[in-house]
Amino acid sequence: xxxxxxxxxxxxxxxxxxxxxxxxxxxxxxxxxxxxxxxxxxxxxxxxxxxxxxxxxxxxxxxxxxxxxxxxxxxxxxxxxxxxxxxxxxxxxxxxxxxxxxxxxxxxxxxxxxxxxxxxxxxxxxxxxxxxxxxxxxxxxxxxxxxxxxxxxxxxxxxxxxxxxxxxxxxxxxxxxxxxxxxxxxxxxxxxxxxxxxxxxxxxxxxxxxxxxxxxxxxxxxxxxxxxxxxxxxxxxxxxxxxxxxxxxxxxxxxxxxxxxxxxxxxxxxxxxxxxxxxxxxxxxxxxxxxxxx
Length: 294
Hints:
alpha/beta
């Protein structure tokens, strides 16, 4: 097994197609297919289920994906450390981030880092749950993760940097809302309110479900997968929403306002990374996050 085989294996995983993987790697498709078949013969297992023009990972393929990503990542890290002797003149930082931490503090961190290191590029991929973000970092799909949950994150095998607490707030259209001049709202005052919510898995949705379970008469006006759709729907008057305080920066650009909710929980935002093996650029970026959290 060699690094070329692993890179081609991962290209097929990421594109879901031998044809697209070959195009991405600028190799002939028959050559790539032979490489994968050779890898399967060497391991004695089938790595992909081939269905027409599409492929999907077998159970053995799923077991190989994580270690393969770490091997490729470690090789890239070694190369980056050697290049890093010349300073941070180039490099790419791969980040996995949930929606609210992506707004803040990640925007502030990226902006400051880009000013100091304009040659470094970012590869930012969205995640929707804490577990998904942890898995992306743990198995090498990202070097740094930004995530948030009800409680401060505690995990032993990764670096964890506590960054900020973002209280949940009520986002509403000031032109059609009775909360226009209200500094704070009580959970009980949300009775009769229509809300735009995300699918289950976020703290915001969990809190709304808790209010409904407590007997507060809340109607779900819309349930959306992409949380970036929430503010436009609130602005359009579809309903209000419960969002972390970080969304205030986006709401300020329009007629949507955010008010605090009495007794609402906070989103505890953290940055995570592997304990070792970071590229110089990612290590420096993590230092910036640590400075922000201190």
